[in-house]
């Protein structure tokens, strides 16, 4: 089992101490730091790139929800939201939280949430992947495409097409090979011929027959293959 790198963010010192106490018996946890406000925590998340963040929802200046939504692509960890109010549950899961802990929570409930987060992290993979890809063009030109700008990838025979907000690039590669080069925390295979950037995901739709479709931010609808459905739902925290 791999050590999880954790941040604790809560404006109440007692609440932070409770999380630390519940984590103390787990040798596979490394606490990178604790923060009492969302602004400092946001900077720490971007700099330290933790695997998991225990994040209070109600904080001054920058709430937990606002913090989660403000993180740039590639810097979004798995999140366990903490709150004293149950009416945030739907909003928390819409933000792809691994779980939602209602204060005061027990050690048993905490351990279940931590296990769920750990499984989510392990399912999505630990490696970060390449930050840019080299795309060979005509006349000896090579274009470097930032992986954070890729919205989705589609297989086209012996090629794959990388779709960015401005254009697309055709690359002579297999989708299986390209998948190994991409950050599994950000990019998820949803079909034998499709990989999506989950930061561009707007909606997950299911019809009466059980088929699923993802809607991306430019209103592009892509089908989810049955064998990829469970992993997608786990990554999104909807199972």
Structure description:
It contains seven helices and 15 strands. By secondary structure, the chain is α/β, with parallel strands linked by helices. The strands form four sheets. Strands 2-1-3-4-5 form a five-stranded parallel β-sheet, with helices on both faces. It has a five-stranded antiparallel β-sheet with strand order 10-9-8-12-11.
* Overall pLDDT: 84
Structural class: alpha/beta
Give the overall form.
globular
Binned strand content = 25-35%
**Cα gyration radius (Å):** 19 Å
How far the N terminus sits from the C terminus, by CA atoms, comes to 22 Å
Strand order of the largest sheet: 2-1-3-4-5
**Individual helix count:** 7
Summarize the amount of helix as a percent range. Answer: 25-40%
* Main sheet overview: 5 strands, parallel
Low-confidence stretches: none
């Amino acid at each position: 089992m791999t050590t999880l790198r954790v941040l604790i963010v809560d404006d109440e010192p007692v609440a932070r101490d409770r999380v630390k106490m519940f984590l103390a018996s787990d040798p596979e946890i490394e606490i990178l730091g604790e923060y009492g406000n969302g602004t400092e925590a946001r900077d720490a998340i971007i700099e330290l790139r933790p695997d998991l963040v225990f994040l209070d929802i109600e904080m001054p200046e920058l709430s937990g929800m606002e913090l989660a939504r403000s993180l740039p692509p590639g810097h979004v960890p798995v999140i366990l939201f903490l709150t004293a109010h149950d009416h945030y549950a739907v909003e928390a899961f819409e933000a792809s939280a691994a779980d939602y802990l209602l204060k005061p929570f027990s050690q048993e409930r905490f351990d279940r949430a931590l296990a769920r987060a750990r499984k989510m992290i392990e399912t999505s993979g630990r490696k970060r992947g390449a930050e840019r890809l080299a795309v060979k063009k005509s006349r000896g030109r090579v274009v470097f495409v930032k992986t954070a700008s890729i919205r989705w990838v589609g297989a086209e025979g012996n090629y794959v097409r990388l779709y960015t907000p401005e254009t697309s690039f055709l690359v002579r590669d297999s989708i299986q090979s390209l998948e190994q080069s991409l950050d599994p925390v950000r990019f998820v295979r949803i079909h034998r011929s499709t990989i999506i950037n989950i930061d561009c995901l707007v909606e997950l739709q299911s019809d009466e027959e059980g088929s699923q479709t993802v809607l991306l931010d430019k209103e592009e609808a892509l089908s989810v293959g049955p064998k990829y459905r469970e992993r997608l739902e786990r990554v999104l925290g909807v199972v």
